Amino acid sequence: MSTIDTINIDFSSQNINWQPDSNLTSEQKEKIKSGDFGTVESFTTLQDGSLQIKTQYGTLSMSGPELDDVKKDLSVGDFITTGNRLDNFSTNDYMTDLYAVLKLLHETNVERRQADREARHASRDAAMSESLNAAQEIRNGAILGLVMGIASGAINIGMGAFSAVGALKSLGQMKAPIQNFKQAQTNLKTSETNVQLKQQQLELSQAKTEVKVKQEVVDTKKATLDETNVEVKTAQEKLDSNAKAIEDKQTEIQQLEQATPRDETKIETAKKDLEGLQTKQTELQKKLDTANIDQTKAQTELDEAQVSLKTSEENVTKLEAQVKETNSKLKKPEDDPTKEISVDEAQKNLKTAKTDYLKAKEASDLANSNLNNKFQELQVKGTFYQSVGQIGSGIANIINAGGQAGEQFSQAKSKEHDAEAQKIQTQGEDITQEMQNEMETINDVKEFFKSMLQSNNQAFQAMLQI
To answer: Does the reported pTM lie above 0.90?
Structure first.
């Protein structure tokens, strides 16, 4: 049986069933009669293998075994039985219904392709949307990291500036003690140089005095040598004169002895005088020898005194050079540092210089003590500034940690979006696969109708042969 309102075709358990909605209007029923089953709204493959196509006017159900189960080698009796079944349908109505079913199948296929396209587009758009969202989350994380980095840098800069200001203040407070210490050190060094100069001037004065003394010694030795030279000369002259007298006396004696008559008295007196001259000659020779010894000694002493004097003079020259060099190191050097002064005056000047040095040493020690005290005081402040700087660094580290956490959160969120996009893509693939399954079912239906027509054709031929 077949009507336009309800189609129910049963060929050996292969069924096509049309069930219209119960609330159709007359106009909608007329459309169904004309072959318009309405727009396809959905299609579903049930667990039993049947296909349900839902339109705006009703539901088309298709069920039955695999097409391979349709026997192509039916017997004549089977064809006749099939033909008898076909007699239950009005040919016109049946063909009208068949075309309507085929049209509905075409619309179903069009709707399937459209749904498949929209599913792909939806999957693509969803994936793109999720990727864009993930990118935006990454950008947000980057911005958060940038903000945190700027804040951290600002805090570090602020703490560094605070420490720098503290350091500058410390340097300002250290300026006066440092200057005082430097001045005290300069004064101390000047005093040391002045003491050295006065010591050298004292040594120079002593050396010059020594040169004077040695010069006097040399002069004395020269006078002594001159005296001994005179003595030697005098002794030599006396010795020569006495030797001449002896020679004359001997000549006189010879003449007296040769005279005639001989005067024995005069001869005896002459011989006594000769003996006296010879004795005197011996004494004069001794005096000459002594004078020569004294002359040699005076010459030796003079030579030694002259060597010593020369050494002292060289020492004076050396000391004068040292005095001039030391004097040049003073901020206010003396005009004539090598001028001759007495030893007493030089000793007095040295004593005054040492007193000034001791005062400069006390001032330097006091300045050094003040500097150390100020340094220790600033060390305490420096510890405070350092502590504040460490607190600032700690705050910066906390902010950095927050920024890193925000960035990690954004990365995690991005991963979630990637996972969601993958899920949507998978769902789209599932829908596509479902569409392919539906398409295969529709192809099975087409094959079913093809087999049905072939069976009807064979049945009609068998009926004609009867």
So the answer is: no
